Amino acid sequence: MTDTASKPFVELRDLRLRPLPAIIGIVATPILMQVVLIAGREPARWLWKQGPEDWAQRPWIFVTLAILFQAITGLIAIGAVKLILPKLDAHLRWPKGKPLIGLALLVGVVMGLVMLVADYWPQFLSGTPIKDYPVDPIDSSGWLFAMGITGVAEETIFRGLIVGMLVLLIPGRLRIGALDLPVAAYVASLLFGLAHYDSFLHNPLHLAIAQQIYAFAWGLAYVWLMEKSDSLLAPMIAHGVGDMVEVGAVMALAATFTG
Predict the structure, then answer these.
(1) Which end of the chain is more exposed for a tag (fewer CB within 10 A), N or C?
(2) pLDDT confidence of 79, banded at 50, 70, 90?
(3) Which residues pair with 10 in a beta bridge?
C-alpha cells in the first residue's frame, strides 16, 4: 500500500534535459509564438481596415478576423513543426474517451467570474459604471461571438503547438500537490501570460499583474483539461466560455447602469 502522506508536496520526475533541445525550447518557442500570433493578426488588421467604413467603429470584427487567421497560422505552424518533430502531438482530435464538455463549461464559468473580479474590482468598490463593451444587439453579439471562439486560436497555438513542442524538447513532469502536469505546461503557461505583455503598456498596473497571474493559472488548467480528455476540445470550450462570461457580465452591468 502506498503511503500518500509520505509524498513530497513538490515532485519533479523524469526530467531529461539535453542542452540543445532545452535551449531551443526556451528560446525558439517564444519567438515562434510571436511569429504565429503576428502572422495571423496583421492580415486581419489589414482586411479590417479595407472593409466598409462602419467597420472602424466595430473592433470586434478585427478581433474575430484575428482569431480566425491565428487559428489558421497555428495549424500551418503545427504542420511545419511536425516535419522537424514528427512525434509532436497537438491533440487536434475528437476526445477518445469522455469529452469533458460539462466540466469545461463549469471551468469556463468559474474562470470568467474570477477574471471579472480581478479586472474590475476597483470599479465595483467605487460604484463606477463599466463601459468597456457596447450593449446594442449587433455589437454586443459580435463581441460575444469573438470571445466564444478565442480558444480555437489560442488553444491551437499555446497548447497544441507550444506545449506539444516543449513536451518533446523539455521532457519531464512536475507535481505540485495534486496537480501533476508536464514541465512543458508550466513553461507554456508562463509564455501564455507573457503574450499579454501589452497590458502593462495600456492598462493600470493592478490589471496587468492580475492578467499575468490568471493567464498562468488558466494555462495550467487548459493543459489539465487537454490531458484528461486527450483533445483540445475541452480547453477550447473552457477558454471561450471564460471570455464570454466575463465580457457578457460586463455588458449586463453596463446595460443596468444605462437603464
Answers:
(1) N
(2) very high
(3) 176
